[in-house]
Every structure is written in C-alpha cells, then in structure tokens.
Design goal:
Layout lengths: L1 E5 L14 H13 L5 E3 L2 E8 L2 E8 L6 H11 L4 H4 E7 L7 E4 L8 H10 L5 E6 L9 H5 L7 H20 L3 H8 L2
Parallel strand pairs: 1-4, 1-5, 5-7
Antiparallel strand pairs: 2-3, 3-4, 6-7
Length: about 190
C-alpha cells in the first residue's frame, strides 16, 4: 500500500492556483488510472486504485494547506502505513522555477507551512516528497497573494507539462524506483 497525498486548499476559488499544484497532480494520476477521488475519509478526499501492481490511496486533504498533517497522519494511522516507505507528498515549491520538479527522500519544510504541519504531526522529516516548481514571488509582492494566485499564460504550459512528468515520477516511486525517479526528474 502506498499513500500519495497532494497538498492544496479546498474550494473553487483555489483551483489551479500555485498552492494547489499537489491537488493538480493527484487529479492527473486519478485521470490516468481511472481512480475516483471522491470518498470523504479522515478530512480528505480519497480514492483507491492500483499503480505498478501496488495498491494506492490518492488523497487531497481538505483541512486547508496549513493543517495538511492532521489528515495525512490520520490516513497513515488508519491504513497502518509507514511514513518513511509508504508516503509520497506532492506540493508546490516557490524556490523552483515553474515546471521544475524535485524529488527528495527527506528534508526540512523549507518554509512551507503545509510541510511544517506534516512534519510536526508525523514526528519525522523522513518521507518522500515531490516538489512542483511554481516560481518565486516577485520582489516586493506578498507571498500569500503569490501562492494563492494563478499562473501566468507563460507559466501555465510549463506547469502542465511538469504535472505530466510528476505522474511518471510518482509511478516510479510507487514501483520502488525512487533513485531512478530522482535521476530522471530532478532539476
């Protein structure tokens, strides 16, 4: 069993914003594997399927970004899954340019409040993460407005293409080929 959690904020007003890159990847995986992510469980929308011969749970926490860890911790507990070996968190990263991916086996929150909450709730930094580049905020602008804002016409195609690559990376990770995914997809 493998839990793939994409971070974002619930609600129409947040759809396809920078901060919802994780939700967009979950939607792309769900579309490719015909998984309905509509079951409400542990403060998340979830769906079950199979990728690379492994049962997967796709999850979109509905707690709002900053409390994502509450939902993810509950899901891991319910499914008796190990964060280090059975969890992949997909989320936006402003330190990467739009369209870039970065896969890590562990690490700090790097200033990302959703990741801070996950690390606090799980009590560990050792879990897989797939970061989606959404670009840094323009100088003098507000960070919250930036991450809750929509991508520009120039950025959107780069991020859409990265979402497709993120699906491939997630497939490799679920198949136990994290190092290969890192070699192929890390910017």
């Amino acid at each position: 069993m493998f839990l793939i959690a994409g971070l974002g904020n619930p609600g129409k007003q947040y759809e396809h914003t920078r901060h919802n890159a994780g939700f967009d990847v979950i939607d792309a995986i769900a579309g490719k594997y015909n998984i309905s992510v509509s079951e409400k469980k542990h403060r998340a929308l979830c769906g079950k399927g199979v990728i690379a011969g492994t049962k997967v749970i796709l999850a979109k926490p509905q707690t709002y970004m900053n409390l994502s860890g509450e939902s993810i911790a509950a899901l891991l507990h319910y499914y008796k899954a190990d964060a280090k070996t059975q969890l992949l968190v997909v989320y936006d990263d402003i330190s990467l340019s739009p369209g870039r991916l970065r896969i890590r086996k562990k690490g700090s929150a790097g200033g990302h409040n959703g990741m801070k909450n996950i690390i606090a709730m799980l009590g560990t930094q050792e879990f897989l993460r797939l970061k989606m580049g959404v670009g840094e905020k323009p100088q003098g602008s507000d960070l919250v407005e930036h991450v809750l804002g929509r991508l520009s016409k120039e950025e959107r195609p780069l991020v859409d293409e990265a979402i497709s690559r993120a699906v491939l990376a997630a497939e490799l990770i679920v198949a136990g080929e994290t190092d290969r995914a890192m070699n192929e997809f890390n910017a």
